[in-house]
Design goal:
The chain has an eight-stranded parallel barrel with strand order 2-3-4-5-6-7-8-9. By secondary structure, it is α/β, with parallel strands linked by helices. A hairpin with a 7-residue loop joins strand 14 and strand 15. The structure holds pyridoxal-5'-phosphate. Pyridoxal-5'-phosphate binds next to helix 9 and strand 9.
């Protein structure tokens, strides 16, 4: 049976490396079902390692984690303009994000109805173009927030749009805009509380930007979009088994689109892992910029002849032909492997569907 395996010793090491790189408070981002590791078990693991702020994007996940009784706080990264959601957030003592006058009012009014004070972090849109007050709006926002008696500001943050860029100008510019906005808050009677702007890549690249907190997601999994010179290990692999072996003659096609032909007779093994299990889909194509499309086409051509491997015991077996939805075919010609033998495949947990069992080992 296919399983997603999470090695606790590697995860632990990554956490230690990350902790050793900063004095700032670590906010563990566990959105997207804990980057695919399984939000509850992953959060429990982080909590046992002393992490006590958990950031999520989905209000239901935030409620779920706050109900699970971890010490520390849950930070919801997505602002809400919905009264029912706002009440759910407040009843569960979730710290939430406000990034507009309406989201501030929604939370304040819900807190007033419940006779509570809601803790909020103010988000500044320094260049992402998504949630947050624009720097120009910060003075007005402060005036408005000062009139809201049922919210307490405990933090302020911003999100970088291109923290993995080779050119840091936009990153520096976002940072400066954030610091200026914080200054404006202070001048206008708002104590901004805990300040944070770094995600994993910025955290690793720009120690001078750590501020009071750093929001770490992908670095815990060792799956970062920048060169890994930090000793972080990749977390997550698929474990499967050979379900069939067979002999194919020379000059025989393998797989869709006839991209691979055997040269000589080969012995093959079939492994029941494919796109459906999150394997071989690392590259996303949700882009419409011509230059990006060209780059993808180029990468396709480049990777056309690139060999991919799986592990069988202490051997590497080459994948022959394209990955299909449910299966791959691997070369067992020089490997003494039989039906039932275990196969190990690299996969980003985030892409592995939720119905595939997770196992922490
Ligand atoms: C996802 C997310 C993060 C974490 O990003 P990584 O690059 O995975 O560390 C941080 N902040 C916000 C607002 C996010 O949405």
């Amino acid at each position: 049976m296919n399983k997603l395996i999470i090695e606790k010793d590697k995860l632990d090491k990554n956490i230690e490396i990350i902790k050793g790189l900063t004095q700032a408070k670590i906010i563990a981002v566990v959105k997207g079902n804990g980057y695919g590791l399984g939000v509850l078990e992953y959060t429990r693991f982080l909590s046992e390692k002393g992490i006590d702020i958990f950031a999520l994007s989905d209000v239901r996940d935030a409620v779920y984690i706050s109900e699970s009784g971890f010490s520390g706080r849950v930070l919801l990264l997505t602002p809400t303009n919905d009264d029912e959601e706002a009440e759910m957030i407040i009843k569960n003592r979730i710290t939430t994000t406000i990034g507009s006058m309406t989201s501030a009012l929604t939370i304040n009014n819900a807190a007033a109805r419940l006779n509570e004070t809601a803790q909020v972090h103010i988000k500044i849109d320094t260049g992402f173009g998504r949630f947050g007050f624009l720097p120009d709006e910060v003075i007005d926002a402060c005036t408005f927030i000062s009139t809201l008696s049922n919210i307490k500001v405990t933090g302020a943050y911003s999100h970088l749009s291109f923290s993995f860029s080779k050119k840091p100008e936009h990153i520096y510019s976002q940072y400066r805009k954030f610091i200026n906005s914080v200054e404006i808050m202070r001048q206008n009677g708002i104590d901004p509380g805990m300040l944070h702007i770094c995600n994993s890549s910025a955290f690793l690249r720009f120690p001078q930007m750590h501020l009071d907190g750093v929001r770490i997601g992908s670095a815990f999994l060792g799956r970062i979009p920048i060169e890994n010179v930090y000793g972080l290990q990749r977390i997550g692999f698929l474990k499967s088994n050979i379900i069939e072996t067979k002999e194919l003659p020379g000059k025989h096609n393998i797989g869709y689109a006839n991209t691979f032909k055997t040269r000589n007779p080969v012995r093959t093994g079939i492994v029941p892992v494919g796109y459906r299990h999150g394997f071989g889909i690392e590259k996303s194509r949700d882009t419409f910029r011509l230059i990006d499309l060209l780059r993808y086409v180029y990468n396709d051509i480049k990777s056309f002849n690139k060999k991919s491997y799986v592990r069988i015991g202490d051997k590497s077996a080459q994948i022959l032909g394209r990955v299909s939805m449910y299966n791959i075919v691997v070369d067992l010609t020089d490997i003494d492997a039989k039906v039932g033998d275990e196969v190990v495949l690299d996969a980003n947990p985030l892409l592995v569907p939720i119905d595939i069992e997770r196992e922490f080992i």
